[in-house]
Amino acid sequence: MYDDLIAIAFECGAMNVAIINAKDIVFSEEVRVLCEKNYCGKYNTNWMCPPALGELEELEKRVLEYKRGLVIQTVSRLEDSFDVDGMDRARIEHFELMNNIRNALKEKYAYIDLLLLGAGACPICIKCAYIDDEPCRFPDRAMPSIEGYGIDVMSLTQACNIPYNNGVDTVSYIGMILFTTEETP
Ligand code: SF4
Fold first, then answer.
1. Does the CB atom of residue 52 touch ligand 1 within 6 A?
2. CB of 179 shorter than 6 A to ligand 1
3. What is the separation of C-alpha 25 from the centre of its chain, rounded to a whole number of angstroms?
4. Ligand 1 pocket check for 53: Cβ under 6 Å
5. What is the mean pLDDT of residues 81-95?
6. Residue 67 — φ and ψ, nearest 5°?
7. Fewer CB within a 10 Å sphere, N or C end of the chain?
8. Which pLDDT tens digit goes with each residue over 34-53?
9. What is the reported pLDDT for 112?
10. Which of 47, 96, 98, 99 has most ligand 1 atoms within 8 Å of its beta carbon, as the pocket-test mutant?
């Protein structure tokens, strides 16, 4: 089954894919502190980011309700290292790929419970409903931020033997689909 999940992710366009045991995922308070510093400009503006996501402890507990994670990396080419539009486009493409993988998994393994974590803030709405204190407009498609969950993405890539960076003038994004199954890798 794991080979099949990995094959589905590659078929959808992922560059690198791996399976990790949920208990090996590293959570870090420092990652959450970086969210609070708001380098991405999305802190406190999105239902799928802190502080709306909740406390680190409860998010870790939620992740550990799942047994394994399918770690998914996309790599996109940029015009140069200042190509912010290219980075934004690549993040949307990563979000769409994660959704395509989710749909493909659900079609084949409808019984599996999944939790998707994407790269950065949920990008569906131009202005997240959080800002107007309204409920999320698309709760079935909204995707929490993997960083917002306090997951140390660099450690995750190391544990999965996936490169964190993929060369000059590229941008790499990491997402994860947590799932529960009795099979062991
Ligand atoms: S779907 Fe829209 S309202 Fe919901 S979290 Fe994403 S951006 Fe916000």
1. no
2. no
3. 13
4. no
5. 95
6. -90, -45
7. C
8. 999 999 999 999 999 999 99
9. 87
10. 47
Residue 113 pLDDT > 70, yes or no?
A: yes
Which atom from ligand 1 is nearest to the alpha carbon of 46?
8
User: Atom 3, ligand 1: which residue's CA is nearest?
Assistant: 136
For residue 136, give both structure tokens: 């999320």
Of 185 and 22, the one with more pLDDT: 22
87 closest CA partner among 37, 40, 46: 40
Residue 184: predicted pLDDT: 46
Residues comprising the chain, all counted: 185
Atom of ligand 1 nearest to the CA of 135: 3
Query: Is the pLDDT reported for residue 31 higher than 60?
Result: yes
Closest residue (by CA) to atom 5 of ligand 1?
47
Q: Cα separation of 122 and 144, whole Å?
A: 6
Select from 129, 151, 153 the least CA-distant residue to 62.
Answer: 151
List phi, psi (to 5°) of 145. -80, 130
